[in-house]
Amino acid sequence: MLKDFTTEYRQKLCTPEEAVEVVKSGDWVDYTSSLGKPVLLDKALAKRRDELFDVKIRGNLVEGPIEVAECDETQEHFVYHTWHCSAYERKLCDRGLCYYIPMVFHNNAAYYKYFLNVNVVMVSVSPMDKHGYFNYSVNTGVAGPIVQNADVVIVEVNEHMPKIHGGYGECIHVSEVDYIVEGKHEPFTTGKPYVPSEIDRKIAQNLLPYICDGATLQLGIGSMPNALGELIAETDRKDLGMHTELCSDAYLHLYKAGKLTNKKKTIDRGKGVFGVAIGSSELYEWLDDNHGVAAYPLEYVNRPDVIAQIDNMVSINSCVSVDLYGQVSSESFGARQISGTGGQLDFLIGASSARGGKAFICMSSTYKDKSGQLFSRVLPQFNGDIITSPRSQVYFLATEYGVINMEGRSTWERAEGLISIAHPDFRDELIKEAEKRKIWRRSNKR
User: Fold this and answer.
1) Is 132 annotated as a binding residue?
2) Cis upstream peptide for 65 (omega within 30°)
3) Among candidates 189, 249, 240, 256, which has minimal Cα distance to 222?
């Protein structure tokens, strides 16, 4: 007979208010990531504001509201941090209510094991199964390493969390939990969809020739990756694979079109691998109890030597701007933090090392400010911007005007290539700036 874990479950069951009593002034508290946000516990902890001081909270890609941040603008009681901004966390940063933690994602587990204190972790999980396990669900990429290094573990059972099969680290047993909290949760809502623009589609069209049958894809978040997913779904490409830190609706498009089979992968064959999933309710329904996918911690998904084992690995990420030296800024406008380092460097290194692998960074050639003025995303040289990817590890760059490969290219070759995919209205000025910096040859193409 199977062991009955319901008695142990009931012994650890308590209200959110009772559970958060364990938090002390000066503690570091982790909310993990995305749907792992502990909604009920966050509200209960915020109610303790006036009796607590200097409690530091960490999260990642968490949607709002985060009650502990909203209730204390003085930050005397609660201080919130993130290592990758969601749209909501970006707004908190703008208000001075959130601090960014730089992190390369494959180091996530090591950071928590060797360098970070976790006094209390609060994480939403799916309901316990008959074997006594709670599933981290679409939060598997980051939850396990945090929980393993926490002094106190509180799980919040969310009845809407999909159960995701995993490679390892996707579950926690009731015996490893200190407190269990239940309560009613709102169903996950489908956020505003990323609608690809005409420029997104042009960039995606430029990438299509580089994607072969049997390629494995890593797609970042945003309208351009979704555009690529939709475009590939309309082509004759077949037997594509998924190995990505972030699973989005782009992969659902590919699956529904019969393109995503994972049959040709050289590792994890037959499985679409991911760390975190963010998207529509339909995406979560597809991932739920699906033996065709496997969630892993980011220490596996994002490790460059793992990525390098996948033949025809194609990594596609986006950036904010690039300068004529090939440096890439993907996480800030000037000093304003808008996202995070994430896994861009991991996949640049890993995909470019794979047999037949390619690593792309994509952007529109221009953007408009609030007044409608047009600016180039190809800049002469960064001055104060945060560099996400160094020029020595940037390979393919794409805009709506084409694709260039900067591997092994000198400074003047990089300048020439980048100007060739810049918006035509800015090319002459960029040439002048390249000449000033002595990275333009007289024989260069104009």
Assistant:
1) no
2) yes
3) 249
Identify the CATH homologous superfamily for domain 14-182: Glutaconate Coenzyme A-transferase (3.40.1080.10)
Asked if the domains 14-182 and 198-437 are classified in one and the same CATH topology, the answer is: yes
On whether the CB atoms of residues 58 and 142 are closer than 8 A, the answer is no
214 is in an annotated binding site: no
pTM to 2 decimals? 0.95
1 is in an annotated binding site: no
DSSP 3-state assignment of 279? coil
Contact of 406 with 398, CB cutoff 8 Å:
no
CA-nearest of 329, 347, 343, 304 to 217 is 347
CATH superfamily of 198-437: Acetyl-CoA hydrolase/transferase C-terminal domain (3.40.1080.20)
Is 222 known as a binding-site position?
yes
**In order along the chain (446 residues), what is the average pLDDT of each group of 10 residues?**
88 98 98 96 98 97 95 97 95 96 94 96 97 97 96 98 96 98 90 80 94 95 79 91 95 95 98 95 96 98 98 96 97 88 94 97 95 96 92 96 96 96 97 96 70
Structure-block tokens of residue 26: 């000066």
Per-residue pLDDT, 226? 77
Cα separation, 2 vs 241, whole angstroms: 37
The distance from CA 190 to its chain's CA centroid, rounded to whole angstroms, is 18
Helical spans, DSSP H, in 115-182: 140-148
- pLDDT at site 445: 63
- Mapped onto helix, strand or coil, the DSSP state of residue 128 is coil
Tell me, what's the pLDDT at 234?
A: 87
Amino acid (1-letter code) at residue 61: L
- Give me the residue label for tokens 């390249």: 434
Per-residue b/e over 244-282, b at no fewer than 16 CB within 10 Å? Answer: bbbbbbbbbbbbebebbbbebbeebeebbbbbbbbbbee
The residues, ordered by sequence, that sit 6+ positions from 129 with a Cβ below 8 Å of its Cβ are 135, 163
Are 60 and 102 spatial neighbours (Cβ–Cβ below 8 Å)? no
All structural domains of the chain with their residue ranges: 14-182, 198-437
Active site residues: 245
What residues contact residue 124 under an 8 Å CB cut-off, 6+ apart? 32, 35, 36, 37, 38, 39, 137, 139, 155, 156, 157, 158, 161
Q: Residue 174: what are its φ and ψ, rounded to 5°?
A: -55, -30
How many whole angstroms separate alpha carbon 392 and alpha carbon 377? 19
CB contact at 8 A, 212 and 312? yes
> Tokens in use for 13?
């069951």
The letter for the amino acid at 33 is: S
